[in-house]
UniProtKB/TrEMBL annotation:
<keyword id="KW-0812">Transmembrane</keyword>
<dbReference type="Pfam" id="PF04577">
    <property type="entry name" value="Glyco_transf_61"/>
</dbReference>
<dbReference type="InterPro" id="IPR049625">
    <property type="entry name" value="Glyco_transf_61_cat"/>
</dbReference>
<feature type="domain" description="Glycosyltransferase 61 catalytic">
    <location>
        <begin position="296"/>
        <end position="408"/>
    </location>
</feature>
<feature type="transmembrane region" description="Helical">
    <location>
        <begin position="12"/>
        <end position="33"/>
    </location>
</feature>
<protein>
    <recommendedName>
        <fullName>Glycosyltransferase 61 catalytic domain-containing protein</fullName>
    </recommendedName>
</protein>
<keyword id="KW-1133">Transmembrane helix</keyword>
<keyword id="KW-0472">Membrane</keyword>
<dbReference type="GO" id="GO:0016757">
    <property type="term" value="F:glycosyltransferase activity"/>
</dbReference>
Length: 451
């Protein structure tokens, strides 16, 4: 993200407001922006050849058949063969579901005699280093981060037992700079990968614990959803940060994690099928994000979680379907960043946008909200997003709130970009939950292929 991304483009402001009017008038602006995309029709999505890794549904079922051994906190074995093998239940670069993952001194160990059946470690995990100036360096994982070992080596390193972390653990390996509130979407979507391979079985949800080993307790409040979203969606799950993870590390004892959903955005970005060249803007928007490479799943999968969030925060999930009554009307939310120094609109443009939106309120009866996410609480943000029909704002992670919007064909997320920057992060949040999306940069507008 550039340091200061000020926009100066009056056309945008006028354009945005006419667009909103057109949109609600039923005119199909989405056909206008979608253009021809035949060249992208053949992009390979979630790689079917990986199915070979997940040998049979029987293995998946083993996840659910073990009776909990309520009074045991350790797994013991008397020889190397007794060490439970690591299994891969679903994998896609950056998104992995594993069973029996070991950790000792902060290293993840995968125990197997069949090294070749494991996905490449660089597609599971990354190494991150903080350097001066608040930058984060990304590198390939080393032996100190993740290692595949055979049973004999495991026996030598672990001894004859490991403490057990039962149930399912969500492990987000991303540092703060790469994390936003869409983590919940990524984890859940990773769970739903299994839908393709076996009958989906929800019993590994909710997660027993959600760990962010690279994010310190002292900074996690900068992304309030990291602890608030789990509290609301999975009230009985524990959330842990760097300091909590270090308790496991400094115990210098092996732990075995029963089921792990592991996400790592940099590992995801290594997917050779991704285009990282923003100059090819259309292709970038189609395949610029790993989320794009997932196969489509049943549209309803996210509805359940959205509804649960709405229930928790006390919002009725009725939405606007184009009626003209005064009681049900479209809700337009402008996520303003004017109080901040980065990624904000030019002051004049901002004022013009606000004035135009207010006019829409008088002339068309729309509900218009101008919200600065730094001024309102997490709950207020989520409540607003759940009710919002159209969300507009300059590029930034605040716009991931769109994941709570009701995904109808009349809803829209509209993201403004400065001339020198483009990002595909939000388009995939919107696309993953089914909210139509438009990116606005200069005099160009991009939208994704219709779902
Ligand atoms: C883990 O750390 C302890 C203490 O530093 C050390 O004695 C032990 O050899 C380490 N084990 C492994 C497998 O690295
Ligand atoms: C999950 O699978 C197990 C074993 O196959 C079954 O007993 C259980 O009812 C399933 N749970 C759900 C929610 O489908
Ligand atoms: C945010 O809060 C600041 C200080 O409390 C105030 O000056 C500003 O107008 C608020 N911004 C919005 C968009 O409400």
């Amino acid at each position: 993200m550039p340091n200061i991304t000020r926009h100066r483009n009056p056309w945008v402001v006028v354009g945005v407001c006419s667009t909103l009017v057109l949109l609600f008038w039923g005119s199909s602006i989405r056909t206008w922006v979608s253009g021809s995309r035949n060249d992208l029709e053949n992009i390979v999505l979630e790689d079917p050849s990986l199915d070979a890794l997940f040998r049979s549904t029987d293995e998946l079922n083993q996840l659910y058949v073990d009776e909990p051994r309520a009074h045991e906190h350790s797994i013991k074995w008397s020889d190397a063969d007794g060490i439970p093998e690591t299994r891969v239940f679903a994998h896609f670069p950056g998104f992995t579901v594993l069973q029996n993952v070991y950790t000792l001194n902060g290293t993840l160990f995968l125990v197997t005699e069949h090294r070749k059946r494991l996905p490449s470690l660089k597609y599971m995990l990354s190494a991150y280093a903080d350097v001066q100036g608040g930058q984060t360096l990304v590198d390939l994982p080393t032996h100190g981060h993740i290692r595949a070992i055979d049973h004999q080596t495991a026996r030598q390193l672990f001894g004859l037992s490991a403490r057990e972390l039962r149930g399912s653990t969500w492990l987000s390996n991303d540092p703060l700079a790469y994390t936003d509130e869409s983590f919940v979407l990524e984890f859940l979507r990773t769970h739903y990968m299994q839908e393709h391979r076996a009958h989906f079985n929800t019993s590994i949800l909710p997660p027993t614990r959600i760990l962010f080993p690279r994010i310190s307790n002292t900074v996690q409040h900068t992304i309030p959803g990291l602890s608030s979203i789990p509290r609301l969606l999975f009230p009985s799950s524990g959330v842990g940060f760097k300091e909590d993870w270090e308790d496991y590390v400094s115990a210098h004892r092996p732990f075995v994690l029963e089921t792990v959903v592991l996400i790592d955005r940099s590992a995801a970005a290594r997917n050779p099928k991704l285009t990282s060249n923003p100059d090819q803007a259309r292709a970038y928007f189609e395949i610029g994000s790993p989320m794009a490479l997932f196969r489509l799943v049943n549209d309803g999968w996210w509805t359940f979680w959205r509804k649960r969030m709405a229930d928790m925060v006390g919002i009725e999930t009725t939405s606007w379907h184009g009626e003209t009554t005064t009681s049900v009307r479209p809700v337009i939310t402008y996520i303003s960043r004017q109080e901040r120094t980065t990624s904000r609109l030019d002051a004049e443009d901002h004022q013009q946008l606000v004035d135009q939106l207010k006019k829409l309120r008088t002339s068309h009866g729309y509900e218009v909200n101008i919200a600065d996410p730094t001024n309102i609480s997490f709950l207020e943000r989520v409540r607003l997003a759940l009710r919002t029909t159209v969300m507009v704002g300059p590029t930034g992670s605040d716009l991931v709130d769109a994941m709570w919007m009701n995904p109808t064909s009349l809803s829209l997320l509209l993201e403004f970009f400065p001339d020198n920057y483009i990002s595909s992060k939000r388009i995939y949040v919107a696309k993953t939950v089914g909210v139509p999306y438009l990116a606005w940069r200069g005099d160009r507008v991009w939208g994704p292929k219709n779902r």
